[in-house]
Design brief:
Maf protein, alpha+beta, about 200 residues, 6 helices, about 30% helix, seven-stranded mixed beta sheet
Length: about 200
């Protein structure tokens, strides 16, 4: 995506190894560099939004940056979980857990909750979350096993990616679609505005 350049000195560090998040940022022409984070995703707690926000904050606070950040530098951390019947689902540890997750989602509505944390400079933080409802069609065991054989469930919260094979299962989406992919872009734009940058015009406020 071309257009007006970002202000001088602007840089964004993405504290995530997710290819889906990289693709979403690239789709809106937002330049960034991927960095490692020492933060671990912890699913303890009953409030999914609080869990996702806490994990996202941990990622930005423990990001391994290549240099001291300036006032026009940002660090972005995101954590996505899936909630069904008050159960918080993260990434499955293996195929058996993935099978249990997909069976739990089949024929039901669930929520995808993403916590987003944005750090400007070294001290100014913003954190928020987005919630999107998704309804899966009923699935039989043959369908579930065929899906598991694809391996697409690996590394995905709730064991699926809406932009992949699991799109065949999705009957309805209520809320921000990009949140289900892995990064709620409309929320991200609002958070950048909160920290002084309009992504649409690429100017400081």
């Amino acid at each position: 995506m071309s257009g007006r350049p970002f202000p001088p000195g602007f840089e964004l560090f993405l504290a995530s190894q997710s290819p889906r998040r990289r693709e979403l940022l690239a789709s809106i022409g937002l330049p960034f560099r991927v960095v490692q984070s020492d933060g671990r995703e912890i699913l303890t707690g009953t409030d999914a939004a609080a869990v996702a926000e806490r994990n996202a904050l941990t990622k930005v606070r423990t990001a391994v940056l290549p240099q001291p950040v300036g006032a026009a530098s940002f660090v972005l951390g995101v954590d996505t979980v899936v909630v069904v019947h008050d159960d918080i689902l993260g990434k499955p540890a293996g195929r058996e857990e993935a099978a249990a997750m997909v069976a739990q989602l089949a024929g039901r509505r669930h929520e995808v909750v993403s916590g987003v944390a944005l750090l400007r400079g070294s001290t100014v933080e913003a954190v928020a979350h987005a919630v999107t409802g998704v309804r899966f069609a009923p699935l039989n065991q043959r369908q579930i096993q065929a899906y598991l054989a694809s391996g697409e469930w690996e590394g995905k919260a709730g064991a699926y990616a809406i932009q992949g094979l699991a799109a065949l299962f999705v009957e309805a989406v209520d809320g921000e679609y990009t949140n289900v992919v892995g990064l709620p872009l409309a929320l991200l734009a609002r958070m950048f505005q909160e920290l002084g940058l309009d992504l649409a015009t690429r100017t400081w406020l």
